[in-house]
Design goal:
Elements: H1 23-32, E1 38-51, H2 62-67, E2 103-104, E3 111-119, H3 127-135, H4 140-152, E4 158-165, E5 168-174, E6 182-191, E7 202-210, E8 214-222, H5 229-245, E9 247-248, E10 252-253, E11 256-257, E12 262-263, E13 269-275, H6 285-296, H7 345-354, H8 377-384, H9 389-395, E14 405-406, E15 438-444, H10 445-470, H11 487-490, H12 507-510, E16 525-532, E17 544-555, H13 557-574, E18 582-588, E19 594-596, E20 603-610, E21 616-624, E22 630-634, E23 654-660, E24 676-679, E25 684-691, H14 696-703, E26 710-717, E27 723-731, H15 740-743, H16 751-762, H17 780-802, H18 826-841, H19 856-873, H20 881-889, H21 895-898, H22 907-921, H23 925-945, H24 950-958, H25 960-987, H26 989-997, H27 1005-1030, H28 1040-1058
Parallel strand pairs: 1-2, 1-3, 8-13, 20-27
Antiparallel strand pairs: 1-17, 3-5, 4-5, 6-7, 7-8, 9-12, 10-11, 13-15, 14-15, 16-17, 18-21, 19-20, 21-25, 22-24, 22-26, 23-25, 26-27
């Protein structure tokens, strides 16, 4: 019997792959020869379950019933099955042809594994009590039960599992012979109680691997209680929930792990036990109680003198007194104990054989089968079992139907009794009906496979019947029968009338489908004992125990070591015979890129000169020229997120992917095949190398010559030779990532040619020295961009007035807010930006960067985004941090910055604030010129995009006092409506007539105010875009409130200079 995944049945044989020598290959190859080191073993396992109902003193009874086997009462059905032949009588494991008996590590029938499942070990009557187990579990209860069990079992047994979920507790101890062979213990708790996941109901599941081969599963569960159909459905759903949610850690054998977690159903032997809470339905509880009490009081079978009613005490709880004692019971503590001496049956038999006058015994002298005795307890139990919900549901395939089995029930219902009594059923007000709530189910892998095969055959038969009926044939004919005979139609005689047959109760049939294996197929599990301990009275449940004998496969370590050594030697010989290999062929390279590949030198790809933002692509063809599959992957280079000063920090500029070598028919992009691909012999695919610099920080570093664009790609061929591909590119110097002080020292001809000349002079790249002469007061790139933006804006306004398909976007942030630029797609606009930067770096005319057919609207968006990118790339900014700190300190003397939410309406105040800011900027003349030049251009662009007509200006100047009042109202939180109201209130009653008449002759105040609001909104939004780009400050430090205040002041500075007088 094998387990799932890499563990399988030991009698099968796999083809070993000796083409690689990695640990997985060694494990698989040795596993293919597992029949040489796996031998049949035998173990006895005792499983016990008990709902202790949180009753005190139950832990003191644990040794009596679970280990010592006390508490049995044969008179009440607590006895060993009559068909128990003992483990010694079993056939050889699995019908194996190996001439060896199963290895018993624990000699003398000793219990090798004790597994105990307890329920309700804690008081869980309120949700708050079992909610605490989610956050603060209490280990004291587990410690109490562990101490009780360890005191009962032999001292050399070792703890295997100890897991608690609220009131559920699962304990497992292994004998010293078995414990070393146990591995991969994985335990999971599944809560199915309140809210569908709390632990007042649920299961504790554990999976162990025995002897590196056989998986054992133990599930201790407590399902929903209640007799109504609603609770029955809950029990069914909870059992299914446990199966669906229980997942165990992947099995690791010899350092090799399975890929997936295991689940219920992957094991070789499974045991599901606990308080399953299934009841007897369709029978009144009082009738069940009355019928069973006739037996427990001795009123039904008068032959049991010791159970007659006169032996019980009047007025006291009826306690059944059994004449038998525990000396005849199964004793697990002393496995070497020998049975009592009996008469020499062989001598009596020989004497009888010599006596010719001996008479045959009277048939009445033989004991009667309890099943055939209507007055026996077993006959009564057999009449109740057809009403057991669990057996009915198994038969209906609703729960526990996938091969699960249960031993014959020959004992009284286990629930519910009065605490302290042997057989007095619930006498409380609820008078709960007696039921077999506590059960122990089990199955083997073959049980489940047998069930799945039967389901498949039934489905195939159903489909065949439907197909035959669709063809007009009522019954599908048997392929082995040439013709059929129907007595009613083919015979001349009248048919014999049918007699209704008596449907006799069959316990095995009522228990479900395929509860016992076929006789021809040897069963690897034998139930030695299944009983309840009736005389344990400390709980309202009776404990139930089972003893199983398992024939299982396990590894013999000495044989496995020998096989592993042989496999390692064989792999070593075959290591070089089946190694995969590939050939790399150049396919396509970008402009300027070169490819070199020689037999002695590594492959080399040169992308040539790399321009900021431009993407370069090179394609390599990879062919598998070996005779075995080749698994390929590029080894990822570890990257760091921190760029330390002074260190040659690495940048991410190269990406790789695998695509199919065949071109797509519909010209769509090739599909990325992932980071790892497998090439079959003779197959090819393409490796695509993309080079691109998109980060401004990386551009600054490359301008300063810190890193180099050179990298060695490692193409990993699993189990084969790695290939090294050197990839390099040269950096094209750019204005992005420079400072104002650098750019003003660039002469005519552009920064690219100037930087190259400096590199040739110094033999290395670096920043432009500050000791070089200054050629202009501000960067030429800023002059050219602002001039082009202003000119193109006028062209866009003219096109919008003349062309129907040209409309200026109404978004106030356009064209400087990237989110508002929607006239073209991002890729197209990015290509325009790359062309503009190339023209700036080479000192070429900006209009030459566009094709003649490019609309002015598209040009303006590209120019505006290039300006934003340029300002973002300035390392010091237009207003450096030192200057901004001085402006920030002067905030109290600048009203516009003291209240950045709204600028003052007084033009004189605005002029004074502008003067104060410019005085501070005068200390850095070049930055001052850049600031004035930029803000002036932006103000003109805003005025062009949000114009005020002469009529609007006249109306606003005529109502200047009201405008000031309205602006103040808007600043106080009234919004534009309040501002309009302020304007109208300043006009007065006589002016209202002017507003009403303005619709025919002039421009109304409201329309003028709306036009002004559009301009103010655009000024504000443009200021938000450029505030952080122009003014550099310590925005990363301080609290979030301080950062927001700093951003508001930077925006206010820009808005102060974008605000134009109403002239």
């Amino acid at each position: 019997m094998g387990s799932s995944g890499v563990l399988a049945d030991s009698t099968t044989t796999e083809v070993a792959d000796l083409s690689s020598a990695n640990p997985y290959s060694l494990h698989r190859t040795a596993h293919a020869r597992r029949s040489e080191y796996v031998r049949p073993h035998r173990i006895r396992i005792k499983v016990g379950t008990w709902n202790v109902a949180a009753c005190p003193g139950t832990d003191k009874d644990l040794a009596r019933w679970f280990v010592d086997g006390e508490g049995l009462d044969p008179a009440l059905g607590s006895s060993k099955p009559s068909d128990d032949g003992g483990p010694v009588e079993h056939e050889l494991h699995n019908g194996s042809p190996r001439d060896a008996s199963p290895i018993e590590l624990a000699d003398g029938g000793k219990i090798g594994l004790y597994v105990l499942g307890l329920q309700e070990v804690n008081v869980l009557t309120a949700p708050s009590q079992y909610m605490t187990w989610i956050y603060a579990a209490d280990d004291s209860t587990m410690g109490k039960w562990k101490a009780a069990l360890e005191a009962a079992i032999p001292p050399d047994y070792q703890l295997v599992v100890a897991e608690q979920l609220a009131g559920l507790l699962l304990l497992a101890y292994a004998s010293p012979e078995i414990a070393p062979t146990i591995s991969n213990v994985s335990t999971i708790s599944v809560g199915t109680g309140a809210l569908g996941y709390l632990g007042n109901k649920g299961a504790v599941c554990t999976r162990i691997v025995l002897g590196e081969v056989t998986q054992l599963l133990f599930v201790n569960s407590h399902l929903a209680s209640g007799v109504e159909d609603y609770y029955l459905e809950r029990r069914i759903n909870q059992a299914q929930q446990i199966v669906n949610q229980a997942r165990f850690e992947p099995i690791v054998i010899s350092g090799v792990s399975e890929e997936e977690k295991t689940k219920i159903g992957d094991e070789d032997f499974a045991f599901w036990f606990g308080d399953l809470n299934f009841r007897l339905d369709r029978l009144p509880g009082d009738d069940i109680r009355r019928l069973l009490m006739l037996h427990t009081r001795g009123e039904y079978d008068l032959s049991k003198r010791e159970l007659r009613r006169e032996n019980s005490l009047e007025g006291e709880p009826i306690v059944v007194r059994c004449s038998s004692d525990s000396s005849d019971e199964v004793m697990d503590r002393d496995p070497d104990r020998k049975p009592q001496n009996k008469p020499d049956d062989k001598a009596v038999e020989n004497q009888a054989a010599d006596d010719d006058s001996v008479n045959l015994p009277d048939p009445d002298d033989f004991p009667q089968d309890p099943q055939e005795d209507p007055a026996s307890l077993q006959a009564t139990l057999s009449s109740l079992l057809p009403h057991d919900q669990l057996r009915r549901l198994i038969k209906e395939r609703k729960v526990f139907h996938e091969g699960w089995r249960e031993g014959p029930i020959t004992f009284l219902p286990t629930y519910k009794y009065d605490v302290g009594t042997v057989a007095l059923f619930d006498s409380s007000e609820k008078r709960r009906p007696p039921s077999w709530c506590d059960r122990i189910l089990y199955r083997t892998r073959k049980d489940m496979e047998r069930y799945m095969t039967k389901v498949k055959e039934e489905e195939e038969a159903r489909k065949k019947d439907e197909e035959m009926k669709a063809r007009g044939i009522e019954e599908a004919a048997d392929d082995d029968i040439l013709f059929s005979y129907d007595p009613e139609n083919d015979s001349e005689e009248h048919p014999t009338p049918k007699v209704a047959e008596y449907d006799e109760y069959n316990e095995a049939e009522d228990g479900g489908d395929d509860q016992s294996p076929d006789q021809a197929d040897h069963d690897t599990i034998h139930l030695d004992l299944y009983t309840s301990h009736q005389r344990i009275t400390s709980s309202d449940h009776k404990p139930v125990s089972s003893i199983f004998t398992l024939d299982y496969d396990a590894v013999v370590p000495e044989l496995k070591s020998k096989v592993h050594a042989e496999v390692a030697r064989a792999l070593d010989r075959a290591e070089n015979e089946g190694r995969p290999g590939i050939t790399i062929v150049a396919d396509h390279h970008p402009r300027g890129a070169a490819w070199r590949s020689g037999s002695d030198a590594p492959a080399h790809v040169d992308f040539g000169e790399a321009v900021f933002l431009r993407k370069y692509t090179s394609t390599l063809t990879l062919a598998n020229t070996s005779g075995v599959p080749a698994k390929l992957s590029f080894i990822e280079k570890p990257m760091t997120n921190e760029l330390g000063d002074g260190d040659a920090a690495e940048i991410q500029w190269l990406t790789t992917c695998f695509v199919h070598s065949e071109a797509a028919d519909d010209d769509t992009e090739s599909v990325d095949l992932g980071k790892e691909v497998t090439l079959e012999p003779g197959e090819t695919l393409n490796a695509v190398l993309d080079a691109q610099i998109t980060d401004i920080v990386h551009a600054r570093m490359l301008n300063e010559g810190q890193p180099t664009l050179e990298e060695v790609l490692v193409l990993r061929v699993t189990d084969g030779r790695d290939h090294f591909i050197t990839v390099r590119a040269s950096w094209a110097p750019t204005c992005i990532g420079r400072s104002v002080d650098e750019l003003i020292r660039v002469p005519e001809g552009g920064i690219r040619a100037f930087a190259r000349s400096l590199i040739e002079a110094k033999a290395r790249a670096g920043a432009i020295p500050y000791d070089l002469p200054i050629h202009r007061p501000a960067p030429k790139e800023l002059f050219r961009l602002t001039e082009a933006i202003e000119t193109t804006t006028q062209r866009v306004i003219a096109d919008a007035q003349m062309l129907e398909d040209c409309t200026v976007p109404s978004d106030p942030g356009w064209p400087f807010d990237e989110a508002a630029c929607k006239s073209t797609d991002v890729d197209t606009r990015t290509s325009h930006i790359i062309s503009l930067l190339d023209a700036l770096d080479q000192d070429q005319a900006l209009p030459s960067a566009f094709a003649p057919e490019i609309p002015a609207l598209h040009r303006l968006e590209a120019l505006a985004q290039t300006l934003v990118l340029f300002l973002r790339g300035l390392t010091d900014g237009i207003v450096p941090t030192a200057l901004w700190n001085r402006i920030d300190q002067a905030v109290p003397s600048i009203p516009s910055l003291a209240n950045p939410a709204s600028l003052p309406a007084d033009e004189a105040t605005l002029d004074n604030d502008r003067t104060t800011v410019l005085d501070i900027l005068q200390s850095a003349p070049h930055h001052n010129i850049c600031f004035v030049f930029l803000t002036t251009t932006l103000a003109r662009v805003v005025a062009e995009l949000a114009p005020l007509s002469k009529a609007d200006l006249a109306t606003l100047r005529g109502n200047e006092a009201s405008l000031l009042a309205g602006t103040a109202a808007a600043a106080r939180g009234g919004g534009p409506g309040a501002a309009i109201g302020g304007v109208l209130s300043g006009v007065g009653r006589r002016s209202l007539g002017f507003v009403r008449k303005a619709g025919s002759g002039g421009t109304p105040v409201v329309a003028a105010w709306a036009a002004l609001e559009k301009r103010r909104a655009r000024e504000r939004r443009v200021s938000e875009v450029f505030g952080g780009l122009v003014c550099r400050g310590q925005s990363a430090g301080g609290t979030s409130g301080e950062r927001r205040a700093g951003e508001a002041r930077r925006r206010a500075v820009m808005e102060l200079f974008l605000r134009q007088k109403l002239e």
